[in-house]
Amino acid sequence: MTGASGAILAERFLLRAREVAEIELHLILSPAALLTAQLELGKKRRDWTTLADTIYRHDDLAAPLASGSFPTAGMVIIPCSMKTLAAVAHGFSDNLITRAAEVTLKERRRLVLAVRETPLSLVHLRNMMLATEAGAVVMPPVPAFYAGVTTIEAAADQFACRVLDLLGWSHPNAVRWSGGDELGV
Q1: Residue 175 domain-assigned?
Q2: Assuming Cys at both sites, which of 55, 79, 107, 121 could form a disulfide with 6, CB separation 3.0 to 4.6 Å?
Q3: Which keywords does UniProt give here (predicted)?
């Protein structure tokens, strides 16, 4: 979790992932993420402990996630700041978040980057391209309006379910596009 706006996206992802029994959750919190979570949700570091099995400091480069020998199904950076995107795109591993992302890519595991910025500059787009070419999935948190989302929480839940899909886990409450047949389309 980085310091980009959208702490609710991380919170809802962790809540929805908790409902899929076989997922063990490891959370890395950057200092900026903690600040953003405090500002946006009123949450402090201790408030995240019930949402993950293990929480790491962003500067703990000796953590298991820093090694490819630690098996994971993949990694999600949600929300993903443009600074973190740039670091991932260019292989700059100066903290545990970017090192774990580098490990995820080199081990050919799924890396999902929920990038949070608008509008996008050419530098942002190029970094997204580089990250994609390296094997990451760039997934801005764009709501699927066909899912009938009417609240921020519902939009964040729907996005969380899509991210879980990308990691190979299906959430029982995921809204699926049915083709519009019931609408007479």
Answers
A1: no
A2: 79
A3: Flavoprotein, FMN, Lyase, Prenyltransferase, Transferase
H helix runs in the chain, sequence order? 7-18, 31-41, 82-89, 96-106, 122-134, 152-166
State yes or no: 16 annotated in a binding site: no
Residue 177, domain member (yes or no): no
30 has binding-site annotation: yes
Does residue 178 have a known ligand-binding role?
Answer: no
Cβ–Cβ under 8 Å, residues 82 and 124: yes
User: Looking at the domain assignment, is residue 185 inside a domain?
Assistant: no
- The total number of structural domains in the chain stands at 1
Asked whether residue 99 is marked as a ligand-binding residue, the answer is: no
Tell whether 83 is in a known binding site: yes
pLDDT digits (tens, 9 = 90+) for 2-14: 999 999 999 999 9
- CATH number, domain containing residue 115: 3.40.50.1950
Domain that holds residue 117: 7-170
Please indicate if the annotation marks 3 as binding a ligand.
yes
Q: Model confidence over 42-98: pLDDT tens digits?
A: 999 999 999 999 999 999 999 999 999 999 999 999 999 999 999 999 999 999 999
Taking the complete model, does pTM exceed 0.90, yes or no? yes
Asked whether residue 104 is assigned to any structural domain, the reply reads yes
Residue 82 counted as an annotated binding residue: yes
